[in-house]
């Protein structure tokens, strides 16, 4: 190994301000997010200018970083307003910008020369020559394409003295480095300008030209087939290889995912990375980390391109739905140590007698039954049915603010 292994940054998605806070509190070193324009997730929530400023302040107060996506492939009309936006991001002290287009990159270099620039995976960064070229132009970091193997990543690490970032968990785009035309063709929504309709997840059948209206399954399955429905990437079982590849930042995909997803996936990888560096020689992947990744909404997992070219085993042909073993039912807003009661914001119907799991940012994971609840007026209640209603709940052990309460969906009746 020609490079020294250092502890990689754990980089998490933040589609909204709440998700940003959860990712940081549950262990992310940095988050990436988008404003209301110029990014590739037009439907991911995204941040107003005021929210961007608050996000940076929240992260910096805790020693974390914020990267903002400016990674669309712009047409002329998209450039209107971009200079002003770039200057604003510089003023609020965003830590870095993610860009893919050379013109946008050079505009950043000219207008905000001190801003750190990261090259998005959209730029198809698949070899060491490209990575070194971006470095010569002034890039601080290059995000490697998901279509790369471990061996290729190691070779780039050995030949390039620039920060490298790679995806290790989340949805796999069916198109090369996310550069898809399907959405634009079917719906007029351009995925390369932030408006992907996820056409690859739709259910398809075959139509023969002389027999319009007759639909034939593409595979031998009476339900049809999801011919472009990839499994999700998960490199947790192989986290030792990921760390020892020498990359500087490990990226979780999912700005459009839930608060529960942001917290659970981040904490699982936080524990794994910390455990490796605490004792690399005796490190082993813990079943509890793998279980945590099953609790959030996901498709069946795969290692993507990391060890081999994907085959039919890396696709899901029979369904487009997600799997998960736990359901997010409440978020702790505050806790009174003197009384043992917590103020909880309801996120799903819950009632007395149900067993819940208490998942905390830093505290221990434990289970308890819901034995007592009160509404905002202090009246005892048996059920909390109203979306995001505020209530009080008796807790068996102390809890932290932003603790997630969830229940096992596999045992629900």
Automatic annotation (TrEMBL):
Pfam family, one: Peptidase_U32
Source superkingdom: Bacteria
Peptidase family U32 C-terminal domain sequence ranges: 325-406
The keyword Hydrolase is assigned to this record: yes
Gene Ontology biological-process annotations: proteolysis
Keywords tagged on the record: Hydrolase, Protease
Gene Ontology MF, one: peptidase activity
Annotated family: Belongs to the peptidase U32 family.
Identification of the protein by name: U32 family peptidase
Source species taxonomy: Bacteria, Bacillati, Bacillota, Negativicutes, Selenomonadales
């Amino acid at each position: 190994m020609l490079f020294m292994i250092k502890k990689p940054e754990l980089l998490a998605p933040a589609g909204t301000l709440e998700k940003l806070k959860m990712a940081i509190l549950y262990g992310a070193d940095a988050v990436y997010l988008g404003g209301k324009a110029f990014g590739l997730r037009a439907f991911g929530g995204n941040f107003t200018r005021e929210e961007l400023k608050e996000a940076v302040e929240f992260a910096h107060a805790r020693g974390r970083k914020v990267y903002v996506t400016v990674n669309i492939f712009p047409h002329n009309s998209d450039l209107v307003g971009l200079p002003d936006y770039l200057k604003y991001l510089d003023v609020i002290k965003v830590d870095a910008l993610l860009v893919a287009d050379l013109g946008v990159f050079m505009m950043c270099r000219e207008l905000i020369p001190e801003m750190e620039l990261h090259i998005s995976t959209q730029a198809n960064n698949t070899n060491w020559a490209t990575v070194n070229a971006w470095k010569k132009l002034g890039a601080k970091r290059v995000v490697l394409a998901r279509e790369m193997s471990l061996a290729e990543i190691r070779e780039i690490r050995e030949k390039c003295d620039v920060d490298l970032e790679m995806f290790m968990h989340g949805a796999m785009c069916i198109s090369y480095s996310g550069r898809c035309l399907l959405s634009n063709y079917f719906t007029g929504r351009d995925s390369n300008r932030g408006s992907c309709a996820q056409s690859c997840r739709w259910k398809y059948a075959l139509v023969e030209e002389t027999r319009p209206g007759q639909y034939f399954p593409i595979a031998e399955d009476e339900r049809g087939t999801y011919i472009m429905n990839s499994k999700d990437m998960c490199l947790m079982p192989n986290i030792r290889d990921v760390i020892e590849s020498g990359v500087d930042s490990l990226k979780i995909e999912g700005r459009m995912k839930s608060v529960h997803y942001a917290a659970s996936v981040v904490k699982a990888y936080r524990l794994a990375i910390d455990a490796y560096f605490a004792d690399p020689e005796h490190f082993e992947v813990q079943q509890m980390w793998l279980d945590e990744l099953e609790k959030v909404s996901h498709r069946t997992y795969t290692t993507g391109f990391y060890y081999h070219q994907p085959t039919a085993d890396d696709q899901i042909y029979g369904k487009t739905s997600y799997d998960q073993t736990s359901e997010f039912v409440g978020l702790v807003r505050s806790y009174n140590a003197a009384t043992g009661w917590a103020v909880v914001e309801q996120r799903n119907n819950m009632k007395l007698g149900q067993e819940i799991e208490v998942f905390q940012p830093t505290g221990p994971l434990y289970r308890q039954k819901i034995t007592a609840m009160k509404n905002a007026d202090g009246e005892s209640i048996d059920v909390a049915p109203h979306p995001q209603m505020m209530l009080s709940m008796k807790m068996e052990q102390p809890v932290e603010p932003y603790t997630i309460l969830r229940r096992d969906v596999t045992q629900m009746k």
